[in-house]
Specification:
By secondary structure, the protein is mainly alpha-helical. The protein contains 10 helices and 2 strands; from the N terminus they run αααααββααααα. The N terminus is likely disordered.
Amino acid sequence: MEQVIETSLEQANKLMHDVSTTESHTAQLESDVKTIYQDLQTIDNDLAISQKINTDLKNLDSALNEAVELLEVVSIIPEIGAEASELKNVISVFKKPVDEALVVSNKVESVVAPVRNAIGKVEPKVKQIDNALLKLMNAENQFASTLGGALQCINSLPNSTIKTSLEHELDSASEPVDTAVLKFDAQQVAILNAIDKAKEEAEDVKHLVMGLGSLQNQINAVMNVLNPLIASLNAVKNVLSHTIRVPYGGYPKTCYKKVLGVKVPYPCGWHTVYFSFSVEQIIKGGLHVIGPVMSLLNKAMNAVLQPVLRALHLHINLPQIPGLSILNDLSNDLTSFEANIVNPLDNLLNNLNLFENMYTDLEQFIDEIGKINKACGIASK
């Protein structure tokens, strides 16, 4: 008799186990969907920074180009020529990854708008999915509670034909439902695996876009060093085009007046002779002027050149931009964003009838178990 009791309600107990497993999968699916929804909101918000970064990278690239060109110009000045050439080489090397990043940033920008548009369309769907999953979870838990109550009630009955009848009734009712539960759960697990992968992809994208703020700060840090340098270099460049005009010698100025109808010359002043050259011409030399004139030109040139040279500081350290690597990873992830994240959510939405049908099946079985439970309660009195 003891052996009969152990093997009775086998189908009902199996159903209890299978429904519990199914409920845990539904709960995991609901949690993953909710996580994706939250990640999508973060992605949507932080992707707005990408356009600013694209602009900042273009400005940085232009600033680096300008700095290289200016350093080439001012390198003709003997006092700073070697330093200017060395810094020009440093900036040229620094510029290469920035150029590459700008190409990638342009690629990112080409997909940002479609991605944000896709997020805007999928967010309402995610809410719909979440509501359906919560509804099914409640039904699964209610079903487990009702079935558990029936099992507990029947097991508490003394051995009798009534107990045997109720056991048979509950097992018979459990078998077709268990078949439906197992079939549903197999489909649910397949969907869960796809959504779990989508969740991982969304997490990766989220962490990348959250790094855009740090990248923007890194770019700004470089610009904060470059801008003062460029301003100082432009001041030096402007001085190079400045014209130096020095007087050296001259000759008497002759005027004329009529005396008894005759034009008579007389001295009436002095014509000063000027030499005019740009600072750049003076620095490059080869002017073919006499030594005293050259001394005057150098003196006048230094009067305007030295102040801007004193304000020029070529010993700078450009901060590194480690965040540039984010752009390449982000470009790859955003390109496959729809296939890896949006499509699994759309597929889940298209399969909501599976969850609705299971909800209906459980609701019907809850009523049936309720009747068995009620009969058990009567029998126990």
